[in-house]
């Protein structure tokens, strides 16, 4: 056999995983974390079963085999899951020599079998699938599998539908695809899948009320002004009383009553004026350009959320540019509130997205209903306050004139001095009192506003939490994705006009699309809203490849590229970037064309809990199908068309050995 010369160079942190012409045989890129000492052997095994349900096959095998090594009792159930994990998603010719040895070892240490045990039936079914040949009747296959309990049938159809050969495989594949097509949108996937990508929302917060800020000068003015006013009023009273001028006294105390009425009405009007001016300031666009927040920081992300949602929640009949211009002030005010409320903690901005969305929607609703400036009506000075202040001003003016006339008649010089002192003290006291009263009432009004706003936001939060209550689990996401794979594989097979038994092996490679958002469960890999998928179908005479994008939330896909090439057209296969936990797959053809896929995107970024990203990256690589794709393509790149023949011969020899070792179990 002639092998094309290849030359690849790994530089920096690059790692050559597979290179045709240089490396051949079995290549395994396993980077497993050490066992968790907190897990018992039983816990290890059950964790493996859960990973198997999520199609994290390498991780599932690791946990299940480690549980057996640590002494977990070998039962029919344990052997069933060991075999499913080992054989999942592969044809007989895709099994490596090491995996065949493990398969023989599993069967070489059989548990005590109870004919009445359902797991014994499952073991026999797997063995029957392995030993079936091209002559097996499709009806016999269906009958055999339908005799299994439903939960075991699920494992057979989801994991082991590639083990059969000939017409039987065609029949099992057809039933498996029909089941996948039905389950692809089951459990309301189209209505629930998007919820997986929304993080747990953080409860609402509102801007803290600033405590009353009263200037020391105002406190002094009220204290000193009040004392001087009392002193001046007292001296004037004594002066008028000595002269027996009761009319003057009446005028003096009438002026005092007018001052009180004027003060009450004026303080209320002053508060309303300041309150309205502050509210207007919330709506007024900023006069100067603020410094741009760092895009990768919390404030920068909040900026983008406000821009996105205000651009989305535009009132009907209003141009987007006009809407954004008119709401620039309130948008900036609310943005600052959210940033100030959450910035002190390490909060993922996406957890606050629900609040930004609610605020944008609320502004639109109030703008549409005309209540965005309703405070102006609420803060209008009532007629009663105007009347009170006018009446007080009249009483004050009249009383001062009357008292002044009496004082001048009694004693001009001392009376004038005491009257001037009382008037000056009253003016100083009143102005300072207006500011103090307004500030104290501002605190009361802010607390009331904050309580009402917090209640409204909490209602919105509760609605959003209730909407996310049926968020799918990672296992559901994995099951839907596996159904996608199967349906896509069958569609590709039909496009290339291949029968299922003409596919010698197949492999999927998954990576995030450029537009993808990502999210993960606590112990799961990254899942993406949009995937880039590479599907390789290996036949007797070459490779059929489809490059496509999958919109996971809508269960919709479209092809971006289709390729056909013979085995000898493959020049090299490699993976680099493993040291940086950013594995990138490269497939090079003799034509010079290179197919490159960054398998995990930017999955090395830390989580909000500041976890080590390495285990997450390992799970994501496991879910991506990278290792299985390497196992398939490395042999093809190294051996060309002979790979098919050699794998068939090896599989036949190994199946014969398996049949000899397990002949008694089929009786």
Give me the count of strands.
9
The radius of gyration is: 40 Å
The oligomeric state is: single chain
Give the N-terminus to C-terminus distance in angstroms: 44 Å
- What structural class do helix, strand and pairing data support? alpha+beta
Q: Within the largest sheet, what's the order of strands?
A: 1-4-5-6
Strand content: 5-15%
Could you characterize the architecture of this molecule?
The structure is a single chain. The protein has 667 residues and is an alpha+beta fold. Helix content is 58%, strand content 9%. It contains 22 helices and 9 strands. It has helices spanning 41-53, 57-69, 76-87, 97-108, 118-131, 138-146, 150-159, 166-183, 189-196, 216-242, 246-283, 298-312, 320-326, 328-342, 353-369, 374-378, 383-410, 412-467, 474-495, 613-624, 626-639, 642-661; strands spanning 505-512, 518-519, 527-528, 530-539, 542-551, 556-565, 570-576, 584-589, 594-598. A 4-stranded antiparallel sheet has the order 1-4-5-6. α6 crosses α8 and α12 runs parallel beside α15. It is elongated and about 135 Å long.
């Amino acid at each position: 056999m002639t092998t094309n010369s290849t030359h690849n160079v790994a530089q920096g942190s690059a790692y050559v995983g597979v290179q045709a012409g240089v490396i051949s045989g079995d290549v395994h890129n396993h980077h497993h974390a050490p066992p968790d000492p907190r897990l018992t052997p039983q816990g290890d095994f059950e964790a493996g079963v859960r990973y198997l349900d999520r199609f994290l096959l390498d991780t599932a095998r690791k946990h299940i085999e480690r549980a057996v090594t640590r002494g977990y009792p070998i039962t029919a159930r344990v052997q069933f899951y060991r075999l499913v994990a080992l054989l999942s998603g592969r044809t007989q010719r895709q099994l490596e020599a090491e995996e065949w040895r493990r398969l023989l070892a599993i069967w070489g240490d059989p548990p005590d079998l109870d004919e009445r045990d359902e797991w014994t039936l499952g073991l026999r079914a797997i063995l029957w699938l392995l030993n079936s040949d091209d002559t097996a009747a499709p009806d016999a296959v269906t009958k055999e599998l339908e005799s299994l309990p439903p939960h075991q049938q699920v494992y057979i159809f989801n994991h082991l539908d590639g083990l059969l050969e000939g017409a039987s495989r065609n029949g099992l594949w057809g039933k498996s695809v029909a089941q996948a097509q039905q389950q692809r949108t089951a459990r309301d996937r189209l209505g629930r899948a998007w919820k997986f990508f929304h993080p747990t929302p953080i409860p609402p917060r509102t801007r803290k009320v600033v405590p009353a800020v009263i200037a020391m000068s105002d406190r002094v003015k009220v204290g000193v002004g009040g004392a001087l006013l009392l002193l001046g009023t007292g001296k004037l009273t004594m002066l008028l009383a000595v002269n027996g001028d009761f009319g003057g006294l009446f005028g003096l105390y009438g002026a005092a009553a007018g001052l009180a009425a004027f003060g009450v009405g004026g303080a209320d009007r002053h508060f309303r004026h300041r309150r309205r001016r502050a509210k207007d300031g919330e709506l007024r666009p900023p006069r100067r350009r603020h410094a741009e927040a760092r895009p990768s920081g919390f404030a920068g992300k909040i900026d983008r959320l406000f821009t996105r949602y205000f651009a989305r929640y535009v009132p009907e009949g209003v141009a987007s540019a006009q809407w954004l211009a008119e709401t620039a002030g309130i948008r900036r005010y609310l943005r600052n509130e959210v940033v100030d409320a959450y910035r002190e903690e390490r909060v993922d901005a996406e957890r606050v997205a629900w609040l930004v969305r609610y605020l944008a929607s609320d502004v639109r609703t109030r703008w549409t209903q005309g209540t965005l400036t309703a405070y102006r009506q609420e803060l209008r000075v009532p007629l009663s306050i105007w009347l009170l202040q006018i009446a007080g001003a009249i009483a004050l003016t009249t009383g001062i004139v009357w008292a002044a006339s009496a004082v001048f008649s009694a004693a001009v010089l001392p009376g004038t001095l005491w009257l001037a002192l009382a008037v000056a003290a009253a003016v100083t006291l009143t102005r300072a009192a207006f500011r103090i009263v307004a500030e104290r009432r501002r605190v009361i009004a802010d607390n009331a506003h904050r309580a009402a706003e917090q209640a409204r936001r909490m209602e919105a939060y509760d609605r959003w939490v209730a909407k996310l209550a049926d968020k799918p689990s990672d296992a559901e996401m994995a099951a839907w994705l596996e159904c996608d794979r199967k349906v896509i594989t069958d569609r590709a097979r039909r496009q290339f006009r291949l029968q299922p038994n003409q596919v010698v092996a197949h492999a999927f490679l998954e990576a995030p699309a450029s537009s993808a958002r990502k999210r993960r469960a606590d112990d799961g890999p990254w899942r993406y809203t949009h995937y880039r998928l590479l599907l390789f179908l290996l036949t007797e005479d070459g490779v059929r490849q489809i490059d496509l994008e999958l919109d996971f939330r809508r269960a919709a896909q479209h092809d971006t590229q289709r390729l056909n090439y013979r085995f000898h057209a493959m020049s090299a296969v490699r993976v680099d970037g493993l040291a940086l936990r950013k594995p990138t797959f490269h497939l090079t053809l003799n034509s010079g064309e290179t197919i490159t896929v960054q398998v995990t995107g930017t999955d090395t970024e830390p989580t909000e809990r500041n976890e080590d990203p390495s285990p997450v990256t390992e799970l994501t690589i496991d879910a991506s199908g990278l290792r299985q794709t390497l196992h398939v393509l490395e042999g093809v790149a190294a051996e060309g068309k002979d790979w098919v023949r050699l794998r068939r011969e090896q599989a036949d020899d190994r199946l014969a050995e398996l049949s000899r070792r397990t002949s008694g179990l089929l009786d």
